[in-house]
Amino acid sequence: MAMAYKLIEAAQTRWRAVNAPQLVALVRAGAVFHKGKLLERPVDITPEPSPDTPVSEVA
Question: So which domain of life are we looking at (predicted)?
Fold first, then answer.
């Protein structure tokens, strides 16, 4: 029990405060945000290509 308490105490130091309480209901309902913007259709997120990763073409 003491170990669980210590783990929770350590985790609390890294938790962020909620700075937009009006959005908590959206997040709990499953809304998806990308770069701070609410996404209407989350499937529209396409990862940006990394400049270090070479692009391979399949012939």
Answer: Bacteria
Where residue 6 falls among pLDDT bands split at 50, 70, 90? very high
Instruction: Please report, for residues 3, 37, 51, 55, the alpha-carbon distance to residue 48 in angstroms, rounded to integers and kept in the order given.
Output: 41, 17, 9, 12
pTM above 0.85, yes or no: no
Report DSSP state, residue 40.
S
- Three state DSSP letters for the chain: CHHHHHHHHHHHCCCCCCCCHHHHHHHHCCCEEECCEEECCHHHCCCCCCCCCCCCCCC
CA distance 37 to 31: 10
Both tokens of 33, joined, read 């945000």
